Amino acid sequence: MIAGWRAAAQAGNIEVRHASIQEDGDVLKRIDEMEFVDTPLHIAAAAGHTDFVMEMMNLKPSFAKKLNQRGFSSLHLALHNGHKEMVLRLLEMEKDLVRVKGKEGYTPLHYVIKEGNIDLLAKFLEDCPKCIFDVTIQNQTAFHTAVENNRVDALHTLCRMLEKTYYCEDVVNWKDRDGNTALHRAAANNHPQMLKLLLECKADKNVTNQAGLTALDITLAKVNNGESINILRVCSFPGVSTLGKLWQAIVNILTKGSAELFQDMDSISSEDRNALLVILGLLLTATYQAILSPPGGVWRGEGSDSPVWQVGAPTSTLITRNLVGKSVLGPIEFLVFYVTIWAVFIGAFFLTLGLLKPFPRDFRVLYRYY
């Protein structure tokens, strides 16, 4: 029966598949119990039968994360055989398939970098930003893969899409099993253009590997590396003040928090979404009204130069013209109140935007990276 399924997958024959299920309802379960196997999904993905693959994803989605005997998932096979449409359809059904590790720990992200498929690289990073954290068995990131395979276009895309994220500096300075960053690898390959891209993407040229060498040390040990040496020696960034560093740290914390908050926004049920929108609507209304009418109101009086007596407190208060129209609260109390209310208002506003569905996709991508 399993052989019949494989033949149906190879031919993309949906009718034969349904007939097999009618004869043996547990056939897919038995295939799924095998640790490493070419499932019908793998076979159909390699053969390019998109409809068969989509139907199989509906029947047995667990097949998508299984590896065959050669260490490949169905998405790996679709990429290897150039079935771009199928890759996009699989990605629509489950974005985390980009993070499935195959042979030697290579994910589909590493594969598209090796092949120089820039369109799919950008798509993977856009749909599954966390895939950038996946490393191979040699502890190499996507940056290492781009440098080692001499993919300048892929490295440029990685830098462009990650340079303004809070985790860019951590990823670009990630060390492999030998302690080498992507900058070390670019220096060893004598690739000036890659060195420039990495340095512009917050690569630290002072990081040392397990041998105690910086990227400049590696470059100096080789011949005909004049341009690379100049880039590493000349490159410097303007000093940042302590206040500037503190502000950057605050921005990074807020960015990280917002990314964690918004990443699972689409998975919220309709009931919870509606309840949250009601609560946020009340918060927006209350805070907006509080901004317009602070506690205690404002000093009242006429617009003349003569003093005005404010009556209603335990003792009458003399108000001069320069106090009329200003908040009754003291300057410090008013500042604390105003900043707090504004923070709540802005937070509720952006949470409301995130909860609205459907929501402009480009804005979510922009918000995520900026």
From TrEMBL:
SMART domains: ANK
Keyword tags: ANK repeat, Membrane, Transmembrane, Transmembrane helix
Domain of life: Eukaryota
ANK repeats: 70-97, 104-125, 178-210
Alphabetical list of Pfam families matching this protein: Ank_2, Ank_5
Sequence intervals crossing the membrane: 275-292, 335-356
Protein name, as recorded: Ankyrin repeat-containing protein, putative
Protein source organism: Theobroma cacao
Lineage: Eukaryota, Viridiplantae, Streptophyta, Embryophyta, Tracheophyta
